[in-house]
Structure formats: C-alpha cells, structure tokens
Design a protein that fits this description.
Elements lengths: L9 H12 L7 E4 L3 H17 L4 E4 L2 H9 L15 E4 L3 E2 L5 E2 L6 H10 L3 E6 L13 E5 L4 H10 L3 E4 L16 E6 L6 H9 L4 E4 L1 E2 L5 E6 L6 E6 L4
Parallel strand pairs: 1-2, 1-3, 3-6, 6-12
Antiparallel strand pairs: 4-5, 5-11, 7-9, 7-10, 8-9, 12-13
Helix pairs in contact: 1-2
C-alpha cells in the first residue's frame, strides 16, 4: 500500500493550489477537497477573503478541510445542505491521460465524489508526479466499506482477481475510520485488469459505500510542472470537453 507523503513536492503543491484558488469567483458556492495540495489552496482562499474581500461559501469534503476553512475565515456550508455547486476543486492521487482519477489517499473519496458530482465544473489540481499512463499501477485503489461487511467484501474483491489490505491508522491503534464512520480497503489488481468493470462490480457489491475510482468526472486538470524556482502551469482538458 502507498501512504501519502504530505511533504513531497510542497513547492509544486503550493504553486498549483494557488492557481486553483484563482478559479474561485465572488459569490461562488465552491466544493473544497481534501489533502495537502488543497490545504495550500484553502490558505490562498483565506488570504483572498481577508485581503481582497472575496465573498464565497465553501462546501468542504472533510473535517480537516472544514476546520482549516473556519480557521481562515472562509464561510462554510455543510454538504447535506447543498445540492448544486458552481465549482469544485480537489487533488488526486493519480490522473491518467483521460483525466480519470484515483482518489482517497486521505480517506475522503466518498464525500469528494458527492461534491464533484454536485458541481457544474470539477477541476483537479496536482503536481506532475501524479500523472500516470494507467490507473492503479503505483497507487492502490481505495474502497470505503461498512465494517460489518469487511469479510464479505474482501471475498468479492478476491473473486474479481484483486487483493485487499485493510488500511491501518498511523497515529492510532486499529484501522483508519473515515469521516463517515467506515473502514477503507486498499485494492491491487493485475495491470491487465479492466478497472471500469471492476468499479461497476464493486458498486453492485453489498457493503461497499464507494470507490476511489473517478471515471468521467473531471473536466480539467491543472498540473504544476518543474521544480522549485522553475515551476510552470499546464492545463489539461478532457477529450471533447
């Protein structure tokens, strides 16, 4: 299993986070994702609220992002009170050439997928290390699972040809528990596996809450390219979008 390194390429994450924050306009109801890149974006939004008088409302995807928004003076709205968003911005663990994604290294993929689905425009912000030729080869596929269905779902994954590992806490004993009170299984499949078919099968499996595979949801991706001191921004758009 790959663990997220929140310290890696911090300059690139800060650069692309600031670029993403520029997409937010006055009066927008904006979905705000979770993770280290998003923390930089939230900090820049907080600066704009404070220094520029930007008037927005954020819909955060996790307790982590909600707490940071509130600390920086960004008004927040709970997810359950929103049904449509002007814009949603989030990071990703992997992005392929079709702008399909793996998300969930931070454990918030279910809420992140709901917020992305609400948005008129969903934009992903990453550094270039997240670009991959094929999903699932460097980062495991997270699946949020009801605890009581753990064994059943694990068997279903094995029947699909995959292996699963229960994600364990780093600064606590026992498994990671999501903001929804569920467990996370990290999945691996052979390179030749049809991940779209896997995703469809998992969504038909009782006990699976959501997967970290995001197919066809991102319209565009902002990518920080280069290294500190020579960073540039690359904009990728979905084919036909």
């Amino acid at each position: 299993m790959n663990l997220k390194n929140t310290q890696s390429n911090s300059e690139g994450k800060k650069f692309v986070g600031a670029a993403g924050a520029k997409l937010v306009e006055d009066g927008m109801l904006t979905g705000i994702g979770t993770g280290s890149t998003m923390a930089f974006l939230i900090e820049e939004l907080g600066r704009r609220v404070r220094d520029e008088g930007l008037k927005i409302t954020a819909v955060p995807t996790s307790f982590q992002s909600r707490i940071l928004c509130m600390k920086l003076g960004i008004p927040v709205l709970e997810m359950q009170d929103a049904c449509a968003l002007d814009l949603a911005i989030d990071g990703a663990d992997e992005v392929d050439g079709n702008l399909d994604l793996i998300k969930g290294g931070g454990g918030a993929m279910t809420r992140e997928k709901v917020v992305a689905a609400m948005a008129k425009r969903f934009v992903v912000v990453i550094d270039e290390s997240k670009l991959v030729a094929r999903l699932g080869q460097s980062f495991a596929i997270p699946v949020e699972v009801i605890p009581s269905a753990l064994a059943y779902v694990g068997k279903a994954i094995a029947n699909l040809g995959g292996t699963s590992t229960l994600r364990m806490g780093v600064a606590k004993d026992g498994p990671v528990v999501t903001d929804n009170g569920q467990f996370i299984l990290d999945l691996r499949f052979a390179p030749a596996a049809d991940l779209r078919a896997v995703d469809e099968a998992l969504h038909r499996t009782a006990g699976v809450v959501e997967t970290g595979l995001f197919f066809g949801m991102a319209r565009e991706t902002l990518v920080a390219c280069g290294s500190a001191g020579s960073l540039s921004l690359r904009r990728l758009q979905r084919h036909g979008g």
